[in-house]
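4.2 Preliminary Data

To establish feasibility before requesting continued support, the project team ran the inverse folding procedure on a target of 314 residues. The structure was first converted into the token representation described in Section 3, and no sequence information of any kind was made available to the design step. The complete token record follows.
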């Protein structure tokens, strides 16, 4: 069995730079220009209470389902923390050459997501704006720190999964919202997230060829300890339970629609050329995925049983 010596981050940055440039050019050729203001029903807007002496927000004004309202809040607060994400990925990847060009391109595109979501929820009164602003202040004061620190391979692995998880969450929030306008807006955002995922997924695929053992370890660590970037939002656990029970984002979706497809794309289960460290990491990964699959099955079974009991009572 071959041995794969670990590479330092500076060497990895240099070796992967041509791939970054290639993927950046591919991304720019596929990304479509769009404008947040075109996805907001401005004619529905009216003044709020306060200096404008308008109408205070009331939950009856919200057209979206209660579950989608929680998901919209979490998703928007997550997008609001963009300055922290920019700082972290700029530190991990560095801001020179194609790396820096990509970081700035990604940041500019991500910024549109927060803009259009905030305009939508404000104009349509989907979310209490006072609650939203207080939550934004609290969440952003906490800031953002990556669980993996400044480890580059861990960083690329994390965003590969996180971008796809965000796409799934946005897309399912739109479908569950009960508002066709919300669905259309979040579908547009999800299309961006998918392109971002492809960039990072392809970049990590190249990293496997440069440092197979180190990359496998990074993937395993990230999968086993994965958290969405908004986990520091106040009440995140309670909101996550509501979102999961609604089928917007749950363990089954995380396993089947996020982790498994990317791992399959990287062909981690058939990958040759791993050293002892890489093989050990892959074994840990396989064991974790099996445990996650079992937990997902248990969760969905209990959810269906709970729904059946509610239906019988109702």
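Position-by-position output of the design step:
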């Amino acid at each position: 069995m071959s041995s794969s010596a670990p590479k330092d981050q500076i060497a990895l940055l240099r070796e992967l730079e041509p791939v970054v440039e290639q993927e950046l050019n591919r991304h720019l050729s596929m990304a479509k220009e769009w404008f947040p203001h075109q996805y907001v029903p401005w004619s529905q807007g009216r003044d709020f209470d306060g200096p404008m002496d308008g109408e205070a927000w009331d939950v009856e004004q919200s057209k979206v389902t209660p579950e989608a309202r929680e998901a919209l809040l979490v998703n928007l607060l997550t997008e609001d923390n963009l300055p922290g994400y920019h700082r972290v990925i700029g530190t991990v990847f560095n801001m020179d050459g194609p790396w820096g060009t990509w970081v700035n391109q990604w940041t500019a595109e991500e910024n549109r997501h927060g803009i259009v979501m905030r305009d939508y929820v404000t104009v349509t009164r989907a979310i209490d704006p006072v609650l939203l602003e207080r939550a934004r202040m609290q969440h952003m004061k906490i800031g953002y720190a990556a669980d993996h620190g400044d480890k580059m391979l861990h960083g690329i692995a994390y965003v590969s999964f996180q971008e796809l998880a965000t796409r799934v969450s946005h897309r399912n929030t739109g479908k569950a919202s009960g508002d066709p306008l919300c669905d259309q807006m979040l579908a547009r955002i999800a299309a961006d997230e998918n392109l971002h995922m492809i960039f990072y997924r392809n970049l990590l695929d190249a990293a496997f060829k440069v440092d197979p053992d180190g990359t496998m370890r990074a993937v395993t660590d990230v999968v086993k300890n994965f958290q969405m970037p908004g986990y520091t939002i106040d009440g995140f656990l309670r909101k996550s339970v509501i979102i999961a029970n609604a089928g917007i984002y749950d363990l089954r979706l995380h396993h089947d629609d996020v982790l498994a497809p990317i791992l399959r794309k990287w062909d981690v289960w058939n990958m040759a050329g791993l050293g002892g460290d890489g093989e050990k990491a892959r074994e840990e990964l396989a064991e974790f995925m099996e445990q996650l699959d079992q937990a997902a099955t248990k969760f969905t079974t209990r959810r269906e049983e709970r729904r059946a009991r509610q239906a019988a009572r109702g």
